[in-house]
Specification:
By secondary structure, this protein is mainly alpha-helical. It has a domain of 213 residues. The protein is 64% helix and 0% strand. Helix 4 packs parallel to helix 16 and helix 5 packs across helix 6. The longest helix has 57 residues. The relative contact order is 0.12.
């Protein structure tokens, strides 16, 4: 090799990283497509919710409820058919964009059907779920206080009460109950679009739909829907943050700081919407961040460490700008805020998290919950989640999506056992049953990531060998065939899950979620309007919520009953009642 050739080769080697950085730089068109995906998902969700107004039903009768849910399914099937008829043929000419918009539309329909179902349950009432009761009444009281210029509880995230107050002031003539109904329905419909859009930061369209939206199905909580929405978005956003740190050695410092600032903005908004998941995830994410920064410094030297520092500084700075004042209030009130409320899960065996029952009463007793498992008391679904966790760690131990999800799960598990083990000693629950939701979501995501990583590894090996990837007895899968199959199967899954979720909140007095809609249907609005579906046309009068802002004295002990308070059973009368009384002593 001549000296000229050697010089040229060394020049190419020095320029290679520069060319890689230019190639990896995201184009404005890619960002625009990502935004359009979000708009399509949101439009699909809002359209599904809007179509519920054309369903004719009596939500207070069981036949009416079944008819209404079936009508929603017909509407959803029609919309799903339109998505397929537009998306699949368009993929013949454009391979990428139709698939992205089709997956986004299905994501929007997944939670739009839940919002539509709950809107049927609340037909002709001005109240949200639970009327003025429970947390619903407290949130309305806070919103009313904000409208009067009074301060909010320093420990509670401020965004949702402020949204209710703003909606009441500008759209509902000061009616905070009606405002909360509107805002809650909007947040119910946002779950699918936000889950899809957040995971699109890390995954291709169909995988973001199949992993992100599917894992969010157990998180569909129509009562206070904003809480689980934060969990669904937080994990992939933190994954994107860790990915940004990992790439510190190849990213320009300015670009890394700008992207870090953007992530700080999103994380800050999520924090002021609901901060609970940040608390459960903090330990694992902080440890992981330190490990990543040390690894970046070891592998990339001082320049990479400086870029990682710029990313951390920008993310933290913007986060504090958005949420700093609330963070200070939260930390200052941490010592005085004690949770003594006993959830259903407070009575359950502490290692079980495979089904999140939220904090509402149910029809199960602690003697039958959880159901006995097949392997040493552990159910097959839990075993499948643990297998998925193991495979994901084995195949993606260095991938940010796996690392962050596993760190959030590990952090929640440690804190769950810590608070549960000190519950009797400290006479405090400290919300630890809510870690069931985080553990379930994270292990579902890890199981999906295990499938994604296995498929990528299998496809890469066959591609390196120059071989197709056929399925024995079938023709080779084409992108259009994969899109058709995935969108059909996932769309029907989301339709069934949405119907089952909405059905739980149809008005009834069984003490399992339906009573929340029943209270809304049987409470008159402040202008005297009573729902036409209220039994005998009678409604109770609304109450003054200002008393909710006055906290009672802390008794210093758990509010748990020495006997299981669940299920709530109506008292039997006559001969049956006498027999039960004798049996119960």
């Amino acid at each position: 090799m001549t000296s000229l050739q050697t010089a040229a080769t060394s020049t190419e080697l020095r320029r290679a990283p520069i060319r890689r950085r230019v190639k990896d730089r995201p184009s404005p068109g890619a960002f625009l497509l990502w935004v359009l995906e979000g708009l399509v998902a949101l439009a699909a969700s809002l359209l599904m919710t809007y179509l519920a107004r054309f369903v004719d039903l009596n939500p207070m009768t069981r036949i009416g409820q079944v008819s209404g849910l079936a009508a929603l399914q017909l509407q959803l099937l029609l919309l799903l058919g339109v998505v397929l008829l537009v998306c699949v043929p368009a993929m013949r000419r454009w391979a990428d964009a139709p698939l992205r918009f089709g997956a986004a539309a299905v994501a929007g329909l997944s939670s739009g059907v839940v919002a539509a179902g709950v809107s049927l349950a609340l037909r002709d009432t001005m109240w949200p779920l639970n009327g003025q009761g429970g947390d619903s009444g407290t949130l309305q009281a806070w919103a009313g206080a904000l409208m009067q210029g009074k301060p909010l509880d320093g420990a509670y995230p401020p965004m949702f009460p402020h949204l209710i107050a703003w909606t009441a002031e500008y759209f509902t003539d000061g009616d905070v109950g009606y405002a909360m109904k509107i805002v809650s329905l909007l947040f119910m419909g946002l779950l699918g679009p936000l889950a899809y859009l957040a995971w699109r930061l890390m995954l291709p369209p169909l995988w973001a739909l199949g992993i992100g939206v599917t894992a969010s199905l157990p998180m569909m909580q129509p009562y206070k829907p904003y809480t689980n929405l934060v969990l669904v978005a937080l994990v992939p956003v933190l994954g994107k943050f860790v990915q940004l740190l990992q790439r510190s050695s190849e990213l320009p410092r300015k670009r890394a700081a700008v992207q870090g600032g953007g992530l700080g903005l999103v994380i800050g908004l999520l924090f002021i919407l609901y901060s609970g998941w940040f608390i459960w995830s903090a330990l694992g994410v902080i440890v992981l961040t330190v490990v990543i920064v040390v690894r970046v410094w070891r592998d990339g030297g001082g320049r990479a460490l400086a870029t990682a520092g710029a990313t951390l500084l920008a993310t933290t700075g913007v986060f504090l700008l958005i949420a700093g004042s609330y963070l200070v209030r939260l930390l200052s009130s941490a010592g005085s805020t004690v949770d003594r409320y006993c959830y259903f899960d407070t009575y359950a065996e502490p290692t079980y998290f495979a089904m999140w029952r939220d904090d509402l009463p149910g029809s199960d007793a602690w003697s039958t919950w959880p159901l006995p498992g097949e392997l040493g008391g552990v159910g097959l679904f839990s075993i499948l989640l643990l297998v998925g966790l193991g495979v994901a760690l084995a195949l993606g131990v260095n991938r940010p999506s796996v690392l962050v999800t596993a760190a959030c799960a590990a952090s929640a598990l440690i804190m769950r056992y810590w608070y549960a083990s000190h519950m009797e000693k400290n006479q405090a629950v400290m919300l630890y049953p809510r870690t069931s939701a985080q553990l379930l979501y994270c292990t579902l995501v890890l199981t999906g990531l295990a499938c994604y990583l296995a498929a990528r590894r299998f496809g890469a090996r066959r591609a390196q060998a120059g071989e197709p990837v056929p399925i024995r007895g079938l023709a080779r899968f084409t992108p259009r065939a994969v899109a058709l199959g995935a969108l059909c199967s996932l769309g029907l899954l989301y339709a069934m899950a949405g119907s089952a979720t909405a059905d739980r909140f149809m008005p009834n007095m069984k003490g399992d979620g339906g009573d929340l809609a029943y209270y809304a249907q049987t409470t008159a609005s402040f202008d005297g309007h009573c729902s036409q579906y209220a039994p005998d046309g009678k409604c109770s009068k609304p109450s003054d919520l200002s008393t909710r802002l006055v906290d009672g004295p802390d008794q210093g002990t758990l509010g748990c009953s020495p006997a299981n308070p669940y299920p709530v059973r109506p008292k039997a009368s006559g001969v049956v009642g006498n027999v039960l009384a004798l049996l119960e002593g």
